[in-house]
Amino acid sequence: MHWTARLAAYLAAHLPAAEAVEVANPRAMPAGASNETVAFDLRVRADGLTWTLPLVLRPQREDGILAPYDVGRQFRVLRALGATAVPVPAAAWFEPTGEVLGTPFYVMARVRGETLPLFWYGRSPRLAAAAEALAGIHAVDWQAAGLAFLAEGSADDPLEAELGPWRMRAERLRIGRAPLLIALGEWLRANQPADARTALLHGDPNPGNYLFEGDRVVAVVDWELAGLGDPRSDLGFYAALQTVFGGMGGPRGETLLSEAYAGVTGRQLTALEYYEALGLYRMAVVMAGWAGRFGALSTGHTLEVIARRLAVLLGPRWGA
């Protein structure tokens, strides 16, 4: 039986009032290097009428850049955020056993919107809208929303809440003992800003993870890196992403996104160099996964790029 027929049978079992259910027009959607996303139309007939629902299938990958994957975790994040002001696609069904498609998956609504390239290259109303959406994510009462399960480390320690899972990924990729990462991890623990606080993080707030209708954000997508940590960490990861893929940012970790974020929140942002350094730790792990999967860039080369950037942010000893 074709996978679309198996999926249709599964969905029909969850739509007992339907007379017929069909999965039509499946096609791969553009997504990041780590994601697998399939769009399809669900045709449901009941009481002599037919409705077509635009949906998205997110199956769990067994390996990849950010393995191990957990689509159940992503589904729980989306369901929790559906009750908040954060614009996210509605999460509809989660199948955890792998018995239907051979791997766990979830199904969510397909939101119509325009995506953007990886980086912001100038100020614009869309940049301000994305910054406002990011600030809204950080403002979520994550405990009241039922997102305490994201505290894989200690929620009382913003750095440990975020860094713990990344250390485990580094060990899995066999770069956890890289001297630069050991030294950077120790420095991060010793220098966490006194005003650090724990908030909900998107994890990867690059422009491609927002869907726009005109200048309005209609959905924030790709929540696989959602976690807890200081809000500035999202800004720091974007800065680190820019460092590795797009060249150096500002000398103290500032970017167009952090500038827009400060503008929409009215907050002065401090210690951005610290949070870019934290983002660079994460980027070292991401790129180790990338090199292992695609052979595109060596881990050694990435660590050299990161060391040079750390020398700009934190002092010349890091460039040695």
UniProtKB/TrEMBL annotation:
Question: Which SUPFAM superfamilies does the protein's record reference?
Answer: Protein kinase-like (PK-like)
Q: Where is the Aminoglycoside phosphotransferase domain?
A: 30-239
Q: Which InterPro entries match?
A: ACAD10_11_N, AGP_Transferase, Aminoglycoside_PTrfase, Kinase-like_dom_sf
**Signal peptide range:** none
Q: Which domain of life is it from?
A: Bacteria
- For this entry, the protein name equals Phosphotransferase family protein
* Species for this entry: Tepidiforma flava
Q: Name one Pfam family in it.
A: APH
